[in-house]
Specification:
The protein is elongated, with a radius of gyration of 33 Å. By secondary structure, the protein is an alpha+beta fold. Helices cover 27% and strands 41% of the residues. The strands form three sheets. Strands 3, 4, 7 and 8 form a four-stranded antiparallel β-sheet that branches. A two-stranded antiparallel sheet has the order 1-2. It has a two-stranded antiparallel ribbon with strand order 5-6.
């Protein structure tokens, strides 16, 4: 019997056959897919946890300056108002590797005499991660994009 490094040649062939069957195409494909799933799971957990680790607080400042237009639309029977305001916000903290777009809006809320509450959006903007000049919002004397309309005719009493 031929001996190579102290291992019997007859057993060497058995070991080689077993190793060849362990690394078949289906076994390799299974290992690759399972490794891919593990990597995907770890990356998903990392993505989820980064949302809780980094601080995401923004403290905007809003000041109502006055009304540009206030009137009554007699055909539709509503009060109509356009306001002028100042708005400041620093949104740089909100952008990270996973944020592409932030939608910012300013809404006003007021109550009526019969305790109904109305809320309306008066200004909005989409802020992209690729445009850093828009990450700091500083609006002075800005006119509202959308007018405030009230069917209860109670804007005059606010």
């Amino acid at each position: 019997v031929y001996k190579r490094q102290g291992i019997n040649a007859e057993y060497m062939g058995i070991i080689e056959i077993q190793m060849a069957s362990t690394y078949s195409l289906s076994s390799r494909l299974n290992n690759i897919c399972f490794f891919g799933l593990i990597v995907l799971g770890v990356m998903s957990a990392g993505n989820f946890l980064t949302g809780y680790i980094s601080p995401k607080e923004v403290h905007p400042k809003f000041t109502l300056k006055g009304f540009k237009h206030f009137g009554y639309e007699r055909y539709v029977k509503v009060e109509d108002a356009r306001i002028i305001f100042d708005f400041e916000a620093d949104l740089r903290k909100l952008f990270d590797w996973n944020t592409h777009l932030i939608f910012v809006w300013v809404s006003v809320e007021y109550s009526h005499a019969d305790s109904n509450v109305s809320q309306m959006t008066i200004w909005d903007k989409r802020i992209l991660h690729s445009e850093p000049r828009d990450h700091i919002i500083n609006l002075v004397g800005e006119e509202a994009e959308y007018s405030i309309t009230d069917i209860y005719l109670s804007l005059i009493h606010i």
